[in-house]
Amino acid sequence: MKVIVVGPRGKMGKLITQAAAARDDMELMAGVGPKGRDYIGKDLGTVAMIGRELGVPVTDDLESVIDGCDVIIDFSTKETAMDVLSLAISHKKALVCGTTGFAEEEMQRFADAAKDIPMLYAANTSKLVNIMNKLLELVATTLKDEIDIEILEMHDQWKKDAPSGTSREMGEIMAHAFGKELKDVAVYGREGVSPREPGTIGYHSLRAGNIPSSHTVFFGGMGERLEITHHSYNWECFARGACDCAAFLADKAPGFYTIKDVLNL
């Protein structure tokens, strides 16, 4: 499988490049960075700090290299992601996108793209996070209105969107278990006199230092509490998961796929 990585100098892009380079079933064709960066034209292995050259370039023009790939992996910015999506559709290339922070209408563009290309969107590509999601669904489906739900998510100071895409997905899973939409039950932080409304899902976002991704869901009952938590020690689990998603798309027809399909959850 021939792969292009968008944003190979970014936090996730570097790790995805490293993970893909270590796999026997993947061949890196190019990296694509933003225009004007000083690493454009350099070797992808050097840019992603793999420790060796890969013999493929980093370019700022995806369209110039896109026809040589089978799948694009994009964990960049939501602005870049929209451009990448458009090119993937026009060139009929499979796309794995893990970028977060999209508005509802932007997410609809990914869903619409599935009519033309194999499209896999994953807010979180960690295997354990997605197993955690199954546990959350089980608890919410079983207990429904017997519990109060609060979500605490922590990330580094550089994360732009809040709440995180992962915690939004968690909220959506539990809201759907109640037969509701997250937008109708989510409450973001509290201040002053703010009693808890039954049936809501509370969100709290912490941003500080270089804290790695951490998500805790609190299920509050009367006289007892259940907490389900996932901590990532680094970003390697997400990079490996992203490559697994790309490999999954190798022989797939156009359609909208998720990490659940990859993990058979």
Give the helices and strands, then pairings.
Elements: E1 2-6, H1 11-21, E2 27-32, H2 44-47, E3 58-59, E4 71-74, H3 78-90, E5 94-97, H4 104-113, E6 118-121, H5 127-143, E7 148-155, H6 165-177, H7 182-185, E8 186-188, E9 201-207, E10 214-220, E11 225-231, H8 236-248, E12 255-257, H9 259-263
Parallel strand pairs: 1-2, 1-4, 2-3, 4-5, 5-6, 6-12, 7-9, 8-9
Antiparallel strand pairs: 7-10, 10-11
Helix pairs in contact: 1-8, 5-6
Task: Write a short abstract of this structure.
With 265 residues, the chain is an alpha/beta fold.
Order of helices and strands: EHEHEEHEHEHEHHEEEEHEH
Rg value: 19 Å
CA(first)-CA(last) distance? 24 Å
Q: What about the largest sheet? A: 7 strands, parallel
CATH class of the largest domain: Alpha Beta
Assign an overall shape. elongated
Percentage of residues in strands: 15-25%
**What is the domain tally?**
2
Query: Helix amount, in percent?
Result: 25-40%
Structural category is alpha/beta
Number of strands: 12
CATH T-level topology of the largest domain: Rossmann fold
Strand arrangement within the widest β-sheet reads 3-2-1-4-5-6-12
Mean pLDDT: 95
Return the CATH architecture of the largest domain. Answer: 3-Layer(aba) Sandwich
Q: Mind telling me the CATH superfamily name of the largest domain?
A: NAD(P)-binding Rossmann-like Domain
